[in-house]
Amino acid sequence: xxxxxxxxxxxxxxxxxxxxxxxxxxxxxxxxxxxxxxxxxxxxxxxxxxxxxxxxxxxxxxxxxxxxxxx
Length: 71
Prior knowledge:
The radius of gyration is 18 Å and the shape is elongated. 31% of the residues lie in helices and 13% in strands. The protein is α+β, with helices and mostly antiparallel strands. The protein contains 2 helices and 2 strands. A two-stranded antiparallel ribbon has the order 1-2. The longest helix has 11 residues, at 4-14.
């Protein structure tokens, strides 16, 4: 059977997540995507003991239309 570390690494890779911080005692994962994708990742990692889970929500940035300078 694969070790916990290998199982977690596989879950992270399969979910297209990113390792942000790696420490001896913990690691931080970043995942962007739809709510269902985040929930699926959370469910797969839950058996390994999640210390903290944060959902940032939707982020939107709008800008005015860029106007080219006239010379």
